[in-house]
């Protein structure tokens, strides 16, 4: 069975926020981007390309079961995750307590348990 798991996702990118973020990135020193393994100019290009993404109309074309996950402390993506799950025909929404944006880093065990339960549930359908 085909499935989809979306973590801390937006279906319509906050364009103005990404443009502001890009502006801030331009003034930051290159050294701030070293740990991420991406160069500063790559971040700026990526944010620029993402600013116009809008999957609002495409969501209704997803028919497989979808697990939408967000971290309790992920203020930037919580609202979008809740809205996306509502728009999906077979969407299931789950919050991971105590986690921020990087659920896989903040709460890997909780995420693993959630994924295991999701796939076990589908196996019994």
Overview of the structural elements:
By secondary structure, the chain is α/β, with parallel strands linked by helices. The chain folds into two domains: 77 residues, Rossmann fold (3-Layer(aba) Sandwich), CATH 3.40.50.1820; 36 residues, no CATH class. Helices cover 46% and strands 13% of the residues. It has five helices and three strands. A three-stranded parallel beta sheet has the order 1-2-3, sandwiched between helices. Helix 3 links the parallel strand 2 and strand 3. It is globular and about 50 Å long. The termini are close together. The mean pLDDT is 90.
Could you state the order of secondary-structure elements as H and E? EHHEHEHH
In whole angstroms, how far apart are the ends?
10 Å
Q: Total number of helical segments?
A: 5
Query: What's the overall average pLDDT, rounded?
Result: 90
Question: What CATH architecture of the largest domain do you see?
Answer: 3-Layer(aba) Sandwich
Strand numbers in spatial order across the main sheet? 1-2-3
Q: Enumerate the spans where pLDDT stays under 50 for 5 or more consecutive residues.
A: none
* CATH C-level of the largest domain: Alpha Beta
Care to count the β-strands?
Answer: 3
Number of domains: 2
Strand content: 5-15%
Helix content: 40-55%
Query: CATH homologous superfamily of the largest domain?
Result: Alpha/Beta hydrolase fold, catalytic domain
Which structural class matches the secondary elements?
alpha/beta
Biggest sheet record: 3 strands, parallel
Q: Rg to the nearest angstrom?
A: 16 Å
């Amino acid at each position: 069975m085909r499935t989809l798991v979306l973590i801390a996702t937006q279906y319509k990118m906050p364009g103005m926020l990404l443009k502001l973020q890009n502006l801030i990135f331009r003034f930051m020193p290159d050294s701030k981007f070293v740990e991420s393994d991406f160069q500063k100019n790559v971040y700026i290009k990526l944010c620029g390309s993402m600013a116009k993404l809008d999957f609002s109309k495409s969501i209704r074309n997803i028919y497989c079961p979808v697990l939408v996950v967000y971290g309790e402390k992920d203020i930037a993506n919580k609202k979008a995750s809740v809205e996306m799950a509502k728009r999906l025909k077979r969407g299931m929404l789950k919050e991971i307590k105590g986690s921020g944006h990087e659920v896989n880093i903040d709460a890997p065990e909780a995420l693993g348990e959630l994924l295991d339960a999701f796939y076990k549930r589908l196996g019994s359908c």
